[in-house]
Structures are given as structure tokens and as C-alpha cells.
Specification:
11 helices, 13 strands, single chain
Length: 316
């Protein structure tokens, strides 16, 4: 939760994790970090330099850096549940997630396709949208890419592109850009599904039969939409300069471009939840675990993005 110091809103950052695990890892890396154990009922305190507030959630068995253990799969999901529930109970203002290894959770016998789907079910959201953002730099523009479908095999994507689904995704995306990003009239570029956006039906008819009718319908309702556009030319300056976000039809249509542009400083955001949730743009990098060589850039960007989104909502 935030507190006010009279001039600006100050947030306490709380880590939901095994406090003993954090202490041991800090000692192994020679990091002079002080851990402050907190409870939900504790008063909010701004973090001091070198101090981490920790809401303790114990692992089932001691964790070894870089080694997966199915015994701790439930621990990982419990930390997510605690953080999300805390947000829904107004004990937290937003949650920022680190990467998880999906395989070890599934190997433990727990069906899990990703944070996005897990949080959608946990919070009871009707529909969620995955959005990745890359911050603007001196040499690259800012970019936001949302997905019409998420973690699906490519063979299943075409059947998953439906009129109702697109209406929901575009509605959530447009509303979130307004309320959580402060953009009054967002312009959204929409990619086609097929090469050349179907080439007038010669390379697929999804654009003609599904995507274009939905875009026309939503334009009549006031949404600022451009498309469907061929994905191979959509991600070029003439188009991106006029847009606030891009809607790609599937995971590997839009995210390779964004990650090429901003990997290490990009942020994964789940729209459509009743809470704010941001995350890093990368995986677990088990080969770097315990070495002190992991790049924290995306985590810092995810925390910064969560704070900005929280401020947009509190200032409305």
C-alpha cells in the first residue's frame, strides 16, 4: 500500500518469498542486505537503503541455486496466490512477478500454462490480455505489443481467432491504455493473421471473415483502430510513429520484434485483471542462478511500470 510524505506518494516494496532462502542467497553472494519480516497487518514503511521487506512464505524443501525441484512447485504458486490475494484485498497496490519455470510445475502434476492464465483464473477475470512494453531510449521508440492469443501451439492459433475474442481483447486494451497509461484516445495497430494480411483472401480468409468486420464494428463505436495490416510491414517507423499499441494475433508474431528492440528493459503486463500485475520479459536463466551475474534491468523496469500504473489509477 502507498503512503504520503506530504509531497509524493511513497510505496513500500514487499517481497513474497522464503525469507531464509533470501538470507542464504544474499550471504552466498556477499550482499549486505537487511531483511525485515512483515505481516499484512503491519503499518506501511518506506524501504530504507539496503533493506528488503519480506512476507515470509516457506519452501517445502531447501532450494539449491540453478536446480529445479518439483517439491517446491506448490511454493511458487503459493507466492503468486498470496501476492494476488493481497492486491484484491487492498493490502498491496500492485504485484510484480519474477519468472517461473513452467515445466517443473507441470512435472509436479499441477497444470500450469503461465502467470497470465493462472492469475486470470485466480482473480475470476472474464478475460485477460498480455501486453509487453519496451521503454523509449535515445535510439529506439517506445513500443507496446498486446496479444490476441497467448500460449498456444501455432497449429491452434487460427481456430482461436474469433470475433468475440477480438472484441474482448481490443476493448480491454483500449480501456487499459486510457485508465492505466493515461492515453485519452489510444491508436491501436492491428496485425493480420496471415502473410500479407491474407492477400485479399488468397493466403487465408480470417482477415476478410473475422478481423476486418470486428475492426469496422469497433471503429463505429469510437475506437481508433488501423488494420488489419501485414505484420512484416506493421513494425516499421511510418506505422509505429502514429500508434500507442499494436495487437498481434499470436505470441511469436509480435514478441520477437519487441524483445529485439527492448530485451532486458521490457515489461510484461496483464490487462483485464482487477489488480495491477507486471513482470519481467525473460525466463529463469538457471545457468545464472546464484552467480550474481543476472541482469536486473527488466525487473527494475517492471517495478517502475507498476508504480506508474498505480499512480495513474490513484490520480483519476
Amino acid at each position: 500500500m502507498p503512503i504520503s510524505n506530504g509531497e509524493a506518494t511513497v510505496y513500500e516494496l514487499v517481497v513474497v518469498a522464503d525469507a531464509d532462502l533470501l538470507r542464504d542467497r544474499a550471504q552466498e553472494l556477499g550482499l549486505p542486505i537487511k531483511l525485515r519480516r512483515v505481516q499484512h497487518s503491519d503499518p506501511v514503511q518506506p524501504n530504507s537503503a539496503g533493506q528488503i521487506s519480506v512476507l515470509h512464505c516457506p519452501t517445502a524443501t531447501p532450494a539449491v541455486a540453478g536446480q529445479l525441484n518439483t517439491a517446491n512447485a506448490k511454493y511458487v504458486l503459493e507466492t503468486l496466490r498470496i501476492a494476488a490475494q493481497g492486491c484484491m484485498n487492498d493490502q498491496f497496490f500492485a504485484m510484480v512477478t519474477a519468472p517461473v519455470n513452467k515445466a517443473v510445475i507441470n512435472d509436479a502434476g499441477i497444470p500450469f500454462s503461465g502467470h497470465t492464465e493462472f492469475l486470470e483464473q485466480l482473480t475470476g477475470a472474464d478475460k485477460v490480455v498480455m501486453l509487453l512494453t519496451a521503454e523509449k531510449t535515445q535510439t529506439t521508440p517506445a513500443l507496446r505489443v498486446a496479444l490476441a492469443t497467448t500460449h498456444l501451439p501455432v497449429s491452434e492459433v487460427a481456430n482461436a481467432i474469433t470475433a468475440d475474442g477480438l472484441r474482448q481483447v481490443l476493448g480491454i486494451l483500449a480501456q487499459s491504455l486510457q485508465t492505466q497509461f493515461g492515453i485519452s484516445d489510444p491508436c491501436i495497430l492491428v496485425a493480420g493473421l496471415n502473410p500479407h494480411a491474407g492477400e485479399s483472401g488468397h493466403l487465408g480468409r480470417e482477415e476478410i471473415e473475422i478481423i476486418t468486420p470486428v475492426l469496422d464494428e469497433l471503429r463505429d463505436q469510437g475506437l481508433n483502430l488501423i488494420g488489419p495490416l501485414p505484420a512484416d510491414t506493421l513494425f516499421t517507423p511510418p506505422y509505429l510513429e502514429q500508434a500507442d499499441a499494436v495487437l498481434a494475433m499470436y505470441h511469436d508474431q509480435g514478441l520477437p520484434v519487441l524483445k529485439y528492440l527492448g530485451f532486458g528493459r521490457a515489461v510484461n503486463i496483464t490487462l483485464g485483471l482487477p489488480i495491477i500485475r507486471t513482470s519481467v520479459d525473460h525466463g529463469t536463466a538457471l545457468d545464472l542462478a546464484g552467480t550474481g551475474k543476472a541482469d536486473s534491468g527488466s525487473l527494475i523496469a517492471a517495478i517502475r511500470q507498476a508504480l506508474e500504473m498505480a499512480n495513474h489509477l490513484t490520480n483519476e
